[in-house]
Amino acid sequence: MAAPYGRPRLAAGPGGAQAGGVSADFEYADLTAVYVNCTLKRSPETSNTDGLIAKSRAVMEAAGARTSLIRAVDHDIATGVWPDMTEHGWESDQWPVLYSQIMDADILVLCGPIWLGDNSSVMKQVIERLYACSSLLNEQGQYAYYGRVGGALITGNEDGVKHCAMNILYSLQHLGYVIPPQADAGWIGEAGPGPSYLDPGSGGPENDFTNRNTTFMSWNLMHLAALLKRSGGVPAHGNQRSLWDAGCRFDFPNPEHR
């Protein structure tokens, strides 16, 4: 029987003594994760970011979590600040379908390349459309993204991993996602026009630093998502937009509210 909330059980050593390691009995079959690859390359062209995503997905799936992958550029995502841009002059917008898939997941990992030291244009568009839906509420009157966790994966052959991750993780927490410790990982090759992550001889897939951070990120996302899901999410007090709009101020001074 797995320990509650994914809490590790110490493995028994010789004679029944507990060893320093932990047994591999974490069970996260109740969790789902969606990875959004914001590469500029349409399928079936090889995406280096997909290579790093695969490593994180393998960690989660080995723990029982179900994962899925969206390559955003393969979909007709309109530009705009509303949940469905077909209601605002666009002929087509596949974002509502993608949004539904994202909302079905406990974990969202935004992933992409570095361009000019920053996130890709596709990443910016995905974050903008997530923001466009940020006014929607859940059943408890909180913002819809409450109770979910977010992370970031970055690849490239120019500086900017931490800058890109900071932008992504700030954006996700601002929208309502919870960010666990060490919720990002990345790989960069030699600065300049050097090899990419999946290129032969790049050293990317074998890089211990990247593999360690990717593993830590994957487990921390699952640990925190399980804690939130199994405890009913973020407590609904002091953060309900529906009640604030109705006049409740949750101990904030409001002489007009009786």
Distinctive features:
two-stranded antiparallel sheet, alpha/beta, globular, 6-stranded mixed sheet, 258 residues, 8 strands, single chain
Low-confidence stretches: 1-23
* Mean pLDDT over all positions: 89
- What letter string, H or E per element, gives the SSE order? EEEHEHEEHEHEHH
**C-alpha geometry:** globular
The helix count comes to 6
Cα(first) to Cα(last) distance is 50 Å
Number of strands: 8
Percent strand: 15-25%
Helix/sheet category: alpha/beta
Portion of residues within helices:
25-40%
Tell me about the largest β-sheet: 6 strands, mixed
How large, in whole angstroms, is the Cα Rg? 20 Å
Structural write-up:
The structure is a single chain. 31% of the residues lie in helices and 17% in strands. It is α/β, with parallel strands linked by helices. Strands 3, 4, 5, 6, 7 and 8 form a 6-stranded mixed beta sheet that branches. It has a two-stranded antiparallel sheet with strand order 1-2. Residues 1-23 have low confidence and may be disordered.
